[in-house]
Write the structure tokens for this entry.
Amino acid sequence: MTTREDTPSDIQQVCIVTRYEIEKHMQSRAFIGIMALVSLVLVLLTVIRPILGLDFSSDPASFVGDYVSWVEILVLIGAVAFASGALSSEFEKRTGLLMFPQPIKRETYLIGKYLSALVVIAAALGVYYIAVSVLSLAITGGVPATIMLSFGFAMIYAMAACAVAFLFSSILKTNTASIVAMVLVFMMVFSIVGGLLSMSNIDPFFMPSNAAGVISYSLEDPYPVSSTTQMGQNMSMTTYVPSELNATLMLLGWAIGSLVVAVVAFKRRQF
Amino acid sequence: MTHAIQIEGLTKTYGDFIAVDSLSLNISRNSFVGFLGPNGAGKSTTIKMLTNLTAATSGKAFLNGIDVVKDPKTALSEVGTVVETPEFYPYLTPDKSLEYIAKLRGMKQADIPSRTKEVLDLVKMSHEHDMKIGKFSKGMKQRVALAQALMFEPSIIILDEPTSGLDPRGMVEVREVLLDLKKQDLTIFMSSHLLNEVQGLCDSVSMMNHGKLLLNKSIDELKKGLEFTRIQVDTIKHIDEATKIRLSEIPGVGGVEMSNANQIIIEFKGGPEDRNGLLKTIDSELKVTSFFEHGNPLESMYMGLIKESR
């Protein structure tokens, strides 16, 4: 018989939840799907260019940059697949009836689930970055040292995207609603607002989609700076490039802020 | 604290609607208590408040002396639950799901495989131990749910309609498991709509309606409290109106209903000696082939109380 003294600490329970949630994700169709998508992007980018008679860049950073430009979308798909339904499904699919009466705090459970989503996305991105490195080595004869930095920024973006997905998942009733909200906000709202702000020459530094540019910018040497393009007589558009520090702080801000709201909403949510 | 479960003024409101209204109830250790009430009475809401699925609006609920409203993690550490029909993660097997829950509760790794086998044997799911739960029927999932509640040998088990959704065979098997558990050093608090099930399994009954507790008594007390028991009598000789009137005049008989020419239902008040006397009287006149208590005394009590509380 287990007694109250045997119940693991909150930190131990976070590790237990993370471990079993990773196992659950690894056996899910979503994981097979994202690995298939990673493979598809790699194959298409590697095969189509020679078919169209286009040469690969001989510069490793530029070569890797072509592949890394797809990372932002892969992160978003990962967040939708592994984080959007993480909390809402506990209510919609009634697994919460099994898990919530266990001696575990809801916040502990949420953090374990969040970490597991990050680990699974890291695994998929890790495979992608390793494959890109191997291709770069084989085709250009080198791998840019900054590729690790780009991977690091991709993971910080994943932290923000997953946290926002958890926020939607904690307040919306169904997985579908949560997924739709995530896709709408990241693919439409952020893009439209970011574009309009740039056209108005206002720095959209607070937008996660703008900060996510750091994933590709970090490969470039020297690091790019913001630039303004004249569009007609009275109109100009500025491409705002966030500094690495600002982008990191902004993405971490989104991650922490969204997670805090998600924890509060998840704790208050009832069957 | 002598009670395994102690509820003090527990209240749950949804806007103006009061789902549970200042409920106070004590459940003694090592008792098997049936929790009854019609749909919407507040049973499930009470159980959900006891199991950290719903927050109480006010009041206290102690499990083994610890307030589950304030400290659910500690309060639920020795409590096994099956609330409604919980779902499992479809990609995990029963072995893996039970291991997950056992780890969350702090069971030692060395004990997990043998205990998993034990509880899956108990709920007759050992053959499916390594199959993905996503492929299971509702009944199979319910049995695995019962297995997870027993996995860590809890001191309290809270069950909400544990046989709901099971086929007749599944119901019998779950009842057998519950009867086995009754022999152990356990407190079981079980809500059910099935009065026969409650009467067959439970030592006592708590009944609620409109969020209020109507009754909290042992099954024996309930039986004693009933004024009349209904006895079905089958006879060889045909029963006519004159015999029926004669039978209704026997002391202790409250009424006689004829089901058919060879069967009557007698409402009778009296102890075993009186009942034996009644049997002898009817047998001498009509030749009795069977004589037994008809229907469920709990049902009569239930219907009476629910009607009164409308």
Residues 226-308 of chain B form a domain with the Alpha-Beta Plaits fold (CATH 3.30.70.100). The first helix of chain B runs from residue 43 to 50. Chain B touches chain A at residues 48, 51-55, 66, 72-79, 81, 83-89, 91-92, 96, 100-101, 103-107, 145, 148, 152-155, 158 (CB under 8 Å). Chain B has a mean pLDDT of 90.
